[in-house]
Amino acid sequence: MPNEQLDILGALSESITLRMKTVLDPTHYGYWVENKVHSDYDIWFLQSGALRITINGKEHLAKPGDAILFYPDIPYMATSNSKGCHFIYVHFDFGIGTQPRLLNDLMLSGIIPSELLAEETLLFSNAYHHTPENRLYLKACLSAIIAKIIDLNRQERYAGGFLSGPKTKKSEQSLDLLQPVFAYIHEHLHKSLTMSELASLVSFSEKYFITFFKKALGITPGQYMYQIRMNRAREYLYMKKYSIQQIASLLGYPDAFSFSKAFKKYYHVPPSKFE
């Protein structure tokens, strides 16, 4: 996974939402076959039995303890042997703003071996079996699992195998085309950036650029810049090295008042009282 895309997730972590939908643990006795396409993300925690997952004609084998991450709109066939299988599954969305499928460009869909997620999946399984009514805790456990999968990919210890190969050019949600824009914003936070200036970096019209950006990331370019500036402001304040006026200048605000107003709107406390 490109580090640039991980940087985007890190920068927007406070705005990322994980919406956990259905959580169930079916047991299938004997041979079991399922042909399906999900409309959201789906992750299975295989408790017992073995599963053969077939996607695009390629077979993948999952053993007890493994996690299986499916992406939306991808047809698959799951098959158990004569001993059947038992797993916990979760339907969920993971996104920002109007973009509920932020993981799509990260190519994480596949079978995550049990030894890589043992601690996290055990925590989730125990929470589901002992306190299934505590959905807040289940959601926290699932968040930890998704974060761990992303980090394993960053460390090159895991690569999703379901959708290996080049990305299709049809996807208009790809973050790849916007990488020059992200880099430019991060390097020029001290300036007042215009939409036309950013659009020119990817040879888009201003109107199409705004539409494309929001479809890809779920928020507008202006909202993105605002959050990045607030992240950077927080870092500067923690450093205790700059005055409010200096921070305002470093982040492209015309004066300390404008910066303080924006900061308070975001953090609900003025920068002078931020700790």
Give an account of the 3D structure:
This protein is of the alpha+beta class. The chain has 2 domains: 17-154, Jelly Rolls (Sandwich), CATH 2.60.120.810; 176-273, Homeodomain-like (Arc Repressor Mutant, subunit A). It has helices spanning 3-11, 114-130, 135-154, 179-187, 195-201, 206-217, 221-239, 244-250, 256-267; strands at residues 17-24, 27-28, 33-36, 41-48, 51-55, 58-62, 67-70, 76-80, 85-95, 110-112. Strands 1, 2, 4, 7, 9 and 10 form a 6-stranded antiparallel sheet that branches. The longest helix is centred in the middle third of the chain and has 20 residues, at 135-154. The chain is elongated. The model is unreliable at 166-173 (pLDDT under 50).
